[in-house]
Amino acid sequence: xxxxxxxxxxxxxxxxxxxxxxxxxxxxxxxxxxxxxxxxxxxxxxxxxxxxxxxxxxxxxxxxxxxxxx
Length: 70
Fold this sequence. Notes:
The chain is built from four helices and no strands. With 70 residues, it is mainly α. It has one domain (10-68): SP0561-like, CATH 1.10.3910. The protein is globular.
């Protein structure tokens, strides 16, 4: 099972897994610095931007696994 889930807070993800920043950018979610990122979970943020949350979570977990050498 992956480390990232759609109910996690955006800033919690970025803080714990900074390598996910590239995935946020790839999916067009470049508003990490906005106020909403401090209280929204990943699913809510993705929904606002019309992003496929399952694809985004999968991509984030792939990046984390790759960077951890697994």
